[in-house]
C-alpha cells in the first residue's frame, strides 16, 4: 500500500536477498518497483526498455523454437551445429574468462584485481544462465538430458564432462555470490578457489568437445582446448573492460579504485590475452594451410579466401586483433575510452572467432554427406529465430547486470581480507601471501577499521564496506 | 531403585516453541506432495526415458542369438549401376524422409579425370539415377576418363566415434556389433552427427518420425536390424538388381559372403580415421574429392 507521494506506508514482512531487504507482499513489492522506475533517469529507462524489447523478441523466438519447432533453425545434416551452439560457446567461455581474470584478486590476492570480485561474479552467473538457456533451446529433447546425464552417464563423452563441469561451475558461482553478500569469508574463499579451477577445466573440456572429433580435422587436436581457454580468458577480460569503463564513466560505487587499479590491470590482461589468442590463431591458420589431412586445407581456405573470409579479415583480424593491440600499445590511447574500444574489439573478435571456428569445421565436409557432395561448401546462414535468441541472451545479461548495478552493493568487500584456507595455510605462508595480507592490514584504507594494537588484522567479513570515494591509502 | 528426577523448571530458559500443525500447514504440505507426485507422473509421461517396452534393440525373434553373429556388409562398386533402387527401398522400409538430404543410404558417382582428380556427385542422393555428366563443381571442364558408383551407408565401425561421444548413451552397440540409436533416450544434440566421419547420420525432421515414432532424434542405417534379426536380408540388399550389395555372417563358414571376400581384395573407406569400418568394399574405391 502506498501513499499519494509514493512512499511505502506499510512495509510488512521482508526477506533479505543478497544483503537487501525485499518486501514479500507482492503489492508492496510492485509499488516499490513502480516508484523506483519513476525515479530512474530517462536514459536508464530507455536502456532498460530496449533490453526488455530484445528479451521479448527472444522470448517469442524461443517459443517458436521449442520442440518440435527446431525446423526454424538454419541447420542441416551437413551443418548440424549453428549459431545457437556458437552463442552457447561464447557465453560459456566468457563466464570462465570472468573467473580467470578475477581469480587473480580473489584467489591469488593481487590487490589491483580485487575491484573485479563482485562484478565478475554477477556477470558470470548471468552469462552462464544465458549459455544454459541457449543450449536448452538448441537441444531437441532438453529434459531428457537431465535424466540421461545423471541416470546413464557417459564418461567417454567430452560433452558429458562439459555438462558436469559447467553444472558444478554454476553451483559454485551461486555459492560465491551468496557468500559474498552474506559475509561468509571462508566459504567465499573456498568457492572462489574451486570456481577458478572450474574456470580452467570447463572451457578446456568445451574445447575437447571439438578437439576429439577426428572427423572434423579443422577442430581436431589438443590445441583446440588451449585455444578455447585462451579465448575464454580474453572474452572475460574484454567484458570486464567494458563494464569497468561504465563504472568509471558513470561514477558507480567504488569507481575511483576501479579507475586507478582495475582499468590498468585489465588493459594489461587484455594485451596479454590478445597476443596469446593471436598467436594461436596464426598457428591454426598456418598449420591448416600446410596440413595433409583431408578437409583441413579446404576448411582453412574457406576462412582465408572462401565464404568466411570477409568476416575473418574485417572483424576477426582487423577489428578483433589489430585494433585492440594498437589501442593498448599506443601511449596516447591508454585511456578508459581506449580500453572500452579495445575491449569491444577484442570481445567482438572472440565471438567472430568462435563463429568461424564452428562454421569452418563443418562448411567443408571431408566426406560425402548424404547427397550434398555436389556443393563445394555446405550452405548455412543463421535464421532470424537463431539471431533473436542469441541477441536476447545478450540483452538478458545486460539487463540483469544493470539491475545488479542499481540495487546491489558492488563495492569490493573485505571478505578475502586475512582469510586463509586452513589446509593451505602453510603454502600461503611460504608463498608470502600471508605476509602481504598482514602488510596490507597496516595500511589505512577508508571504510576498513584500523588494525588492532597487536597488529592482528581485523576480523574478516565484519568490516564495514569501503567508502564511496575509495580513495587510495 | 533410584527415582527418576523430575524435570527442573527454570525460569531463565525459554521454553522451546512447540511444533504446531494447523490446518493450513497440513493442507499446504499435502498439496505440495500431491503436486510433486503429479508433476513426476506428467514428466514421466512426457519423457519416457527408460521405458524398456519400446527398446528398439530387443531381438524380435526369441531364438535369435545376437552374440553368435558376425554380420558383414560387402559393397561391390564394379557391379553397381547407380539405379538408386536401394535408396528408394531404404526410404520405404525405414520411414526415411523423402527430402534428398535425409538418407540412411545413398549412392555417389566418382568421376576420375585424366589428371587423376576425382569428382564426386550424388544428385538427390542418387535415388533417381544419374545424369550423363557429373554435376560436381569443376567436372564440366575436366576430361573424365572413368567413373564408378559407390553406395554409402553406416559403416558400423568397430571403433565408433558416435557411441563414444554420445553424452547420454543413446547410441549403443548390440552384441553382434550393429550400432543403433535409442530414440527414446536421444536428446538431439547432434554430436554424433558431427562426429561421424562418413556423414551417415541425420536428425529426423519435425514433420517425420523414426520407425519408433519419434522426431528430433538422430537416425542412421541399422543394416535393417528388424529384418536381419529375423533371418532376412537388409532391404537394400534384397532389391539390388546386380548384386552390388552383399550381406552375410562371417561367423558362419557356409555363408556365401566368404566367396566374395576370398575372391577379391577388399578395402574400407577412410582407414586413416582408425574407426575400423565393418562395411567392406570390393572394386574401385577412392577417397572423396
Summary of the model, kept short:
The complex is a heterodimer of chains A (473) and B (289). Chain A is mainly α and 473 residues long. Chain A has 15 helices and two strands.
Task: Provide an overview of this structure.
The complex is a heterodimer of chains A (473) and B (289). Chain A is mainly α and 473 residues long. Helices cover 65% and strands 2% of the residues of chain A. A two-stranded antiparallel sheet of chain A has the order 1-2. In chain A, a hairpin with a 2-residue loop joins β1 and β2. The two termini of chain A are 46 Å apart. The radius of gyration of chain B is 29 Å and the shape is elongated. Chain B starts with 22 loop residues before the first helix and ends in a 7-residue tail after the last strand. Chain B has helices spanning 23-46, 85-94, 161-165, 191-195, 225-228, 235-239, 257-263; strands spanning 71-76, 106-113, 118-121, 144-152, 171-173, 179-181, 201-203, 218-220, 245-249, 266-267, 279-282. In chain B, β2 and β3 (118-121) form a beta hairpin. Chain B has 289 residues and is an alpha+beta fold. Chains A and B meet through α5 and α6 of A and α3, α4 and β7 of B.
Amino acid at each position: 500500500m502506498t501513499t499519494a507521494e509514493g512512499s511505502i506506508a506499510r512495509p510488512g514482512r521482508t526477506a533479505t536477498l543478497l544483503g537487501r531487504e525485499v518486501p514479500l507482499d507482492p503489492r508492496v513489492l510492485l509499488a516499490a518497483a513502480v516508484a523506483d522506475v519513476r525515479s530512474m533517469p530517462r536514459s536508464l529507462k530507455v536502456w532498460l526498455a530496449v533490453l526488455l524489447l530484445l528479451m521479448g523478441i527472444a522470448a517469442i523466438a524461443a517459443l517458436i523454437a521449442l520442440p518440435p519447432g527446431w525446423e526454424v533453425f538454419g541447420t542441416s545434416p551437413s551443418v548440424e551445429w549453428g549459431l545457437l551452439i556458437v552463442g552457447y560457446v561464447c557465453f560459456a567461455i566468457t563466464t570462465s574468462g570472468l573467473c580467470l581474470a578475477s581469480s587473480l584478486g580473489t584467489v591469488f590476492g593481487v590487490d589491483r584485481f580485487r575491484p573485479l570480485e563482485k562484478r565478475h561474479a554477477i556477470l558470470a552467473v548471468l552469462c552462464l544462465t544465458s549459455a544454459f538457456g541457449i543450449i536448452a533451446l538448441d537441444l531437441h529433447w532438453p529434459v531428457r538430458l537431465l535424466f540421461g546425464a545423471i541416470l546413464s552417464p557417459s564418461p567417454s563423452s567430452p560433452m558429458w564432462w562439459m555438462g558436469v563441469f559447467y553444472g558444478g561451475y554454476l553451483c559454485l558461482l551461486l555459492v560465491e555470490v551468496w557468500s559474498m553478500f552474506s559475509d561468509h569469508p571462508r566459504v567465499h574463499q573456498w568457492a572462489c578457489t574451486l570456481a577458478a579451477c572450474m574456470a580452467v577445466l570447463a572451457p578446456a573440456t568445451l574445447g575437447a568437445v571439438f578437439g576429439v572429433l577426428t572427423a572434423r580435422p579443422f577442430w581436431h587436436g589438443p590445441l583446440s582446448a588451449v585455444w578455447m581457454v585462451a579465448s575464454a580468458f580474453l572474452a572475460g577480460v574484454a567484458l570486464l573492460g567494458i563494464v569497468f569503463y561504465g563504472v568509471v564513466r558513470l561514477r558507480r560505487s567504488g569507481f575511483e579504485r576501479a579507475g586507478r587499479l582495475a582499468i590498468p590491470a585489465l588493459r594489461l590482461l587484455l594485451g596479454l590475452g590478445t597476443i596469446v589468442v593471436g598467436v594461436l590463431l596464426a598457428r591454426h591458420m598456418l598449420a591448416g594451410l600446410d596440413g595433409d589431412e583431408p578437409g583441413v586445407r579446404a576448411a582453412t581456405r574457406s576462412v582465408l579466401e572462401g565464404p568466411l573470409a570477409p568476416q575473418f579479415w574485417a572483424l576477426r583480424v582487423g577489428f578483433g586483433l589489430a585494433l585492440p593491440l594498437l589501442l593498448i600499445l599506443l601511449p596516447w590511447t591508454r585511456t578508459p575510452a581506449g580500453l572500452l574500444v579495445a575491449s569491444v574489439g577484442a570481445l567482438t573478435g572472440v565471438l567472430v572467432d568462435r563463429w568461424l571456428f564452428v562454421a569452418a569445421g563443418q562448411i567443408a565436409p571431408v566426406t560425402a554427406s548424404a547427397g550434398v557432395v555436389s556443393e563445394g561448401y555446405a550452405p548455412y546462414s543463421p535464421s532470424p529465430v537463431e539471431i533473436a535468441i542469441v541477441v536476447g541472451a545478450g540483452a538478458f545479461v545486460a539487463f540483469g547486470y544493470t539491475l545488479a548495478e542499481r540495487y546491489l552493493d558492488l563495492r569490493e568487500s573485505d571478505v578475502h581480507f586475512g582469510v586463509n584456507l586452513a589446509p593451505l595455510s602453510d603454502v600461503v605462508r611460504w608463498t608470502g601471501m600471508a605476509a602481504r595480507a598482514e602488510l596490507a592490514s597496516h595500511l589505512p584504507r577508508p571504510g576498513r577499521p584500523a588494525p588492532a594494537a597487536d597488529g592482528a588484522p581485523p576480523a574478516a567479513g565484519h568490516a564495514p564496506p569501503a567508502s564511496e570515494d575509495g580513495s587510495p591509502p | 531403585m533410584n527415582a527418576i528426577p523430575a524435570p527442573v523448571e527454570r525460569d531463565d530458559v525459554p521454553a522451546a516453541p512447540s511444533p504446531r500443525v494447523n490446518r493450513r500447514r497440513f493442507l499446504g504440505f499435502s498439496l505440495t506432495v500431491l503436486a510433486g507426485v503429479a508433476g513426476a507422473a506428467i514428466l514421466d509421461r512426457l519423457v519416457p526415458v527408460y521405458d524398456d517396452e519400446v527398446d528398439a534393440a530387443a531381438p524380435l525373434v526369441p531364438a535369435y542369438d545376437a552374440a553368435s553373429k558376425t554380420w558383414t556388409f560387402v559393397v561391390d562398386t564394379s557391379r553397381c549401376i547407380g539405379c538408386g533402387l536401394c535408396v528408394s527401398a531404404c526410404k520405404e522400409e525405414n520411414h526415411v524422409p523423402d527430402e534428398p538430404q535425409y538418407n540412411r543410404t545413398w549412392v555417389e558417382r566418382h568421376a576420375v579425370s585424366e589428371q587423376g582428380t576425382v569428382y564426386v556427385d550424388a544428385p538427390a542422393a542418387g535415388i533417381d539415377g544419374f545424369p550423363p555428366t557429373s554435376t560436381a563443381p569443376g567436372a564440366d571442364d575436366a576430361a573424365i576418363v572413368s567413373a564408378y558408383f559407390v553406395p554409402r551407408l553406416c559403416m558400423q565401425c568397430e571403433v565408433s566415434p558416435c557411441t563414444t561421444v554420445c553424452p547420454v548413451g543413446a547410441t549403443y552397440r548390440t552384441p553382434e556389433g550393429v550400432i543403433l540409436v535409442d530414440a527414446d533416450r536421444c536428446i538431439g544434440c547432434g554430436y554424433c552427427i558431427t562426429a561421424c566421419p562418413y556423414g551417415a547420420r541425420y536428425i529426423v525432421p519435425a514433420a517425420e518420425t523414426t520407425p519408433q515414432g519419434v522426431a528430433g532424434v538422430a537416425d542412421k542405417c541399422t543394416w535393417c536390424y528388424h529384418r536381419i534379426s529375423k533371418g532376412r536380408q537388409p532391404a537394400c540388399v534384397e532389391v539390388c538388381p546386380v548384386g552390388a550389395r552383399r550381406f552375410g555372417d562371417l561367423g558362419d563358414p557356409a555363408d556365401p559372403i566368404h566367396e566374395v571376400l576370398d575372391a577379391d581384395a577388399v578395402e574400407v573407406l577412410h582407414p586413416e580415421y582408425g574407426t575400423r569400418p565393418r562395411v567392406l568394399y570390393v572394386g574401385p574405391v577412392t577417397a572423396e574429392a
